[in-house]
Design a protein that fits this description.
alpha+beta; Lipocalin; 8-stranded antiparallel β-sheet; 2 helices; 49% strand
Length: 152
């Protein structure tokens, strides 16, 4: 009788541990993250035009696994008029360890020129909190941007 009770208790404990593990492992990430920044960049188009640019960038990741990158700004060559660039790239994401894997949907060519990392189908990013609501968004090999989270 005593042996059966131990076996039942061990079985129940094993089931509880497995249930806790699978609940933890397969629960969707609950991340609501939004930040914005102003970027000044030099874009090298060709030998005759080095584009200087200023962009407002808004980056958002919602808790449902969707997000978007919103960019608005201008660029120009040294002897030409400014060209406006406004666009939004939507993406889905999932957490993989300390990184988020982003898959972009219907990427805009203009935004690919601003963020070279958007030339890839899947992008892994890490969001690192600094101080005062500032964050670094980076891939494993380069920093994409430094942005500030709205403190509402």
């Amino acid at each position: 009788m005593k042996k059966n009770t131990k076996l039942i208790m061990m079985g129940l404990l094993l089931i509880a541990v497995l249930l806790a593990f699978f609940t933890w492992r397969y629960t969707a990430p609950t991340l609501d993250f939004e930040c914005r920044t102003k970027m000044k960049r030099m874009l090298f188009a060709n030998d005759t035009c080095n584009k200087s640019s200023v962009f407002e960038v808004f980056f958002s990741m919602q808790s449902d696994g969707n997000g978007y990158l919103l960019v608005s700004g201008t660029y120009s060559c040294s002897d030409s008029q400014q060209i406006s660039v406004d666009g939004m790239d939507k993406f889905t994401y999932k957490k993989e360890g300390t990184y988020y894997s982003l898959s972009f949907l219907n990427k805009k060519k203009e935004l690919n020129e601003i963020f070279n990392v958007l030339n890839y189908e899947n992008i892994k990013i890490k969001i690192t909190e600094l101080t005062n609501g500032d964050y670094i968004i980076a891939t494993p090999i380069e920093v994409i941007m430094l942005c500030s989270k709205d403190m509402s």
